[in-house]
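Why should sequence recovery work at all? Because a backbone constrains its sequence more than one might expect. Tight turns favour small or flexible residues, buried strands favour hydrophobic ones, and helices have their own preferences. The token representation captures these environments compactly. In the example below, the structure is given first.
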């Protein structure tokens, strides 16, 4: 059993408290005009981009395929590098039940995070739901999309935040690699912490608050971490795909899982672990884990990808949501008010320069931490190395990083 007590993050940066509700950061000149921005996808990446670009004074429209009738999901990590950016956007994790794992490192319920992002985005952006994109046109200086109902939306800037199976991806990078299943399924469910306190075999697991616990053997693992102010545990059981019933297999968060699959998969674990497994109820969800080879490019002309559309993450480092939010903030930082449509191709290339090396670094260690015992790909990352990697992740400030890149570009090229 691994217990992860937290790694001390860096001190909060000056960007943490810059947000003033309902106020945009504008530097007005007589010729300044906001960019017209069209975002495909209203997940964490898309909503974060809408907030950040709205904060810069741009006009944002979001198109979302779903109707948001039944949001789902479990817990999500908000590490310090992400928490600072959320505060810059006016979002405080403790306001929606964020559990403090350690200084500036929170665990929150994904639905609550999404709801707060949506609420904040709608202060400045327009959201259209039930939008099925049938065509993406990136030719010329005004990208557009056509919907199944015949409507067409045009903008100066098109952002593909449409997730793992992105439609925008194929338009930006034709012939690019598709996501592939890695051979594992993840079963997720929520469990009230009080239930574990009532059983002698599990009470020891919840004596300390804000602790991430993992039980692993061979090619499977169970992880538990708190959310909703430590009142709820998020459980994730990783099981080989060949042990999962065909009806369970899915790339969707909405698919119901078969409890008998995980009961059998963890039948040789300790009584405490088996008790936790037995707690899974009708809310049990399952989806397959995916990875993707690096894309040749994230940008094309006036369009760019961000979040899972550009770089899907497996859930082994708790940085997937943070990387999506960093992407969004990087784009907005590189496009301050006064940026023009003519600036977009170069600024989007700068976005890729800013983000790609960091994303590839985090992806590398995410994959390493996902390795099983005796994995043919090599050893899993050690606890000591994990501390070093997490400190590198935590210390990054994407606002300052992208600002410095933009300032260098201004100095070298005399850009507006």
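From this structural description, the recovered sequence reads:
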């Amino acid at each position: 059993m691994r217990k992860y007590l937290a790694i001390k993050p860096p001190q909060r940066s000056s960007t943490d408290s810059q947000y003033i509700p309902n106020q945009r950061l504008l530097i007005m000149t007589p010729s300044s005009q906001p960019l017209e921005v069209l975002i495909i996808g209203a997940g964490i990446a898309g909503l974060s981009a809408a907030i950040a670009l709205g904060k810069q004074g741009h006009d944002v429209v979001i198109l979302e395929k779903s109707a948001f009738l039944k949001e789902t999901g479990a817990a999500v990590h908000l590490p310090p590098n992400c928490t600072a950016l959320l505060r810059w956007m006016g979002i405080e994790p403790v306001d929606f039940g964020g559990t403090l794992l350690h200084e500036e490192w929170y665990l929150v319920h994904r639905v609550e995070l999404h709801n707060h992002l949506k609420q904040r985005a709608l202060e400045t952006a327009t959201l259209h739901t039930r939008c099925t994109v049938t065509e993406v046109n990136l030719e010329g200086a005004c990208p557009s999309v056509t919907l199944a109902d015949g409507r067409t939306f045009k903008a100066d800037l098109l952002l593909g935040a449409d997730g793992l199976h992105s439609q925008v991806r194929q338009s930006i990078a034709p012939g690019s690699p598709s996501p592939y299943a890695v051979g594992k399924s993840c079963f997720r469910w929520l469990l009230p912490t009080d239930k574990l306190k009532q059983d002698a075999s599990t009470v020891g697991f919840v004596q300390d608050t804000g602790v991430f616990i993992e039980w692993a053997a061979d090619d499977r693992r169970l992880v538990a971490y708190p959310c909703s102010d430590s009142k709820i545990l998020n459980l994730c059981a990783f099981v080989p795909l060949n042990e999962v019933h065909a009806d369970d297999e899915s790339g969707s968060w909405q698919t119901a899982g078969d409890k008998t699959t995980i009961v059998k998969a963890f039948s040789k674990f300790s009584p405490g672990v088996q008790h936790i497994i037995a707690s899974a109820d009708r809310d049990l969800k399952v989806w397959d884990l995916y990875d993707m080879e690096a894309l040749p490019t994230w940008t094309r002309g006036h369009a760019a990808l961000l979040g899972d559309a550009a770089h899907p993450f497996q859930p082994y480092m708790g940085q997937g949501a943070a990387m999506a939010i960093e992407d969004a903030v990087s784009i907005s930082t590189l496009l301050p008010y006064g940026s023009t449509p003519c600036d977009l191709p170069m600024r989007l290339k700068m976005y890729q320069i800013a983000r790609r090396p960091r994303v590839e670094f985090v992806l590398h260690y995410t994959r390493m931490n996902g390795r099983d015992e005796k994995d043919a790909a090599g050893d899993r990352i050690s606890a000591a190395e994990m501390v070093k990697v997490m400190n590198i992740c935590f210390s990054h400030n994407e606002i300052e990083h992208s600002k410095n890149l933009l300032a260098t570009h201004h100095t070298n090229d005399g850009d507006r």
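A few observations help interpret the result. The mean pLDDT is 87.
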